[in-house]
Amino acid sequence: MRISHGLSGRVLPAHPHQLPDELFTSWFVRTAHANGLKAQVLADRLYGKQCSFWARDQDKLAAPHILSAFAGIVGCSYEEALAATLRPYEGTIYSSHNPYGNTLWILPIGVRHRIRDRPGQQYCPLCLVEDAIPYYRRRWRLSYYTICEIHGTQMHDCCPECQAPVAFHRLELGHKTETLPRLATACYRCGFDLARAPAWSPDALDGQSIMALRAFLAFHDIGWWFHAKEDIPSMPDYLKVVHHVVTWLTSAQGGRLLRWAEESVRGVAQPSVKYERMPFEFRPLITRHWLLVCTCWLFQDWPNRFLDGCRSVGLTKSRITRSEVMPGWFDRVAEELAVVWGHHTEH
Ligand SMILES: [Zn+2]
Ligand SMILES: [Zn+2]
Q: What domain count does the chain have?
C-alpha cells in the first residue's frame, strides 16, 4: 500500500522518477524544479518551516515521516524513497549506520544552517555532461569513491573556479526574481558549470592499482568481495580492513610501509607529505585517493607484496593491527608475519 502524506496528500503534477542511483536530495530538488518550485519552498510546504529540512544531511538521516511524505508527492513507495538515501549501505559496505555521527566511508558535508562547509558531495564532470538530465549519485558520497568507475577520471569535490562545496539545493537562493530553475550543474556560488570541470587522470603508483580500484568501485555494493584467490563473504569485513589500512598508513608505523611502497616504485617517497591525525573521511580527495591506490598496490599479489614490505621495514602483527580484532583473511596473513618475523633466523 502506498503512503500518502503532505501537501494535499496527492501526487504532484510533475513527479519525476528516481534516476539510477540518484540521491534523495537530488531527486527532491528535481521534483521541486519540475513543479516550478524552489527546493526550499517545497520543503517548507511539505514539512513546515520549523522542520529546517535543508539544515540537515537528509541523504544520511532523513526520518521516516520525511521519506513517506516525499513518497506521497512523487507517487512511489516508502521503500523506494528510503533506497535513495545512504542508509541502505548499512550491511553492504559498513556494519552500522550512525545518523548523528561519523559513519565509516560516508563523506561528511558539514551542514550548518543551509550551508555546507565540507566538500563531501563529489561529482564526475563527464557523467554530468553525458546525463540527459544531470543528477547526483549516492555513490558519490562515499570516501573511497575517488575516481569515476565509468570514465576512470578523478572525481571532483568542489567547484574548480571558486572551491565552493557542491550545494545544488541552493542554486536558486538569492535569485528571487528568477522563475526558471537554473542549470542543475551550476556552482551555487559563482555559477561555473560543474559539468565543464576538467577531467583529470588519477595519480597512482602503477596502472594496475588504478584498475584494481576501478574494478572495486564497479562492484562495490554487491555485499561480498573476492580478494586474491579468496571469496570474502562480507564486504563490510573486507572494507573494515581497507579502512584500517588507509588510516594506519598515515601513522608513524604505517608511514614506513607507505614510504617503502612509494620508494619501491618511484625511487623516492612522496615529497614532504605530512599526514595530520584525522578520520579518513575528513581528508582531502587527493589524499584519500593516494592512500587508496597505495593500499591497492600493497594488496596486489596478496599476500606476498604486503609481507615483503612489512618485513623490509620491520613491522610486526601488533604494529599493524594495533590489537584490533581483524577479519580472518587479514589476521591470518598478519599472524604469518609475526611467526616468520619471530623465527626468521631458523629459515
Ligand atoms: Zn563519470
Ligand atoms: Zn564556483
A: 2
State the Cα angle at 109 between 108 and 110, rounded to 5°. Answer: 95
Query: CA–CA separation, 183 vs 72, rounded Å?
Result: 26
| CA separation for the pair 30, 324 (Å, rounded) | 44
Tell me how far the alpha carbon of residue 334 lies from the centroid of ligand 1, in angstroms.
Answer: 36
Domain range for 82 is: 24-196
Q: What is the DSSP string of 180-210?
A: SPPPTTB-TTT--BGGGS--PPPP-SSHHHH
Is residue 271, in this structure, part of any structural domain at all? yes
Q: Decide if 199 contacts 151 (C-beta within 8 A).
A: yes
The alpha carbon of 29 and the centre of ligand 2 are apart by a number of angstroms equal to: 19
Residue-wise pLDDT for 95-126, tens only, equals 887 877 789 999 999 887 767 788 999 999 99
62 and 184 together in one domain: yes
pTM for the model stands at: 0.91
CA of 164 to the centre of ligand 2 (A): 5
